[in-house]
Write a structure and sequence with these properties.
The protein is an alpha/beta fold. It is about 50% helix and about 15% strand. α7 crosses α8. It is elongated and about 65 Å long.
Length: about 190
């Protein structure tokens, strides 16, 4: 988990009057928590409060990811296929005190399933778009991010310079793309 990013996010949530951010598996989840997961038929939601508290509703099979990311076990609401996810959503809403709270989501990623479950389980729970909050945070790059981007540019430039002389008339776009990928792999 990136505590610096969580702290920055908490400040942004406070400014936006958003009590909690609810994230489903996507790049923002990785960026903030380091949790790598994919969107599947099994609901997985990570919550971050305006005070920096974290929680997760997760399938039992993925609960270790939440714990490894630093989410306290008493804030991991794991569910299995036999009992289903309704109880985990209800428990999370009650334990986190989401009734009459504002929960921000990334509108392009949050599914109707998770959104509906939160509003059904929470009395007066208001879901709002929080894309601007996330975008504001992700636009500002840390030194390590800038260094990683520069390294990627250097690798791409090295690969292009090495591969460019090998491009010949009649090659397909796919052949050239494969050749560039190979050259980037060789360049590191």
């Amino acid at each position: 988990m990136n505590l610096s990013r969580i702290n920055q996010l908490s400040k942004q949530l406070q400014k936006a009057n958003i009590d909690w951010l609810a994230l489903v598996p996507n790049t923002s989840l990785v960026y903030l928590t380091g949790i790598h997961s994919h969107l599947s038929e099994r609901p997985f939601v990570v919550f971050i409060s305006k005070t920096g508290e974290l929680a997760a509703i997760t399938p039992v099979l993925e609960a270790m990811k939440a714990e490894k990311a630093g989410i306290s076990t008493d804030r991991i609401f794991a569910w299995g296929d036999s009992e289903g996810y309704l109880g985990a959503f209800g428990q999370a809403v009650q334990t986190l005190g989401l009734n009459n709270k504002t929960v921000g989501v990334e509108a392009r990623y949050m599914r109707v399933l998770e959104s509906d479950l939160l509003t059904e389980m929470g009395s007066g729970l208001n879901i709002v778009h929080a894309d601007d909050v996330i975008n504001e945070l992700r636009l500002r790059k840390e030194a390590s991010e800038i260094a990683a981007m520069q390294k990627a540019v250097d690798i791409a430039e090295t690969a292009f310079k090495a591969y460019f002389p090998k491009i010949k008339i009649g090659m397909t776009e796919k052949e050239i793309a494969n050749g560039l990928v190979q050259a980037m792999t060789e360049a590191g």
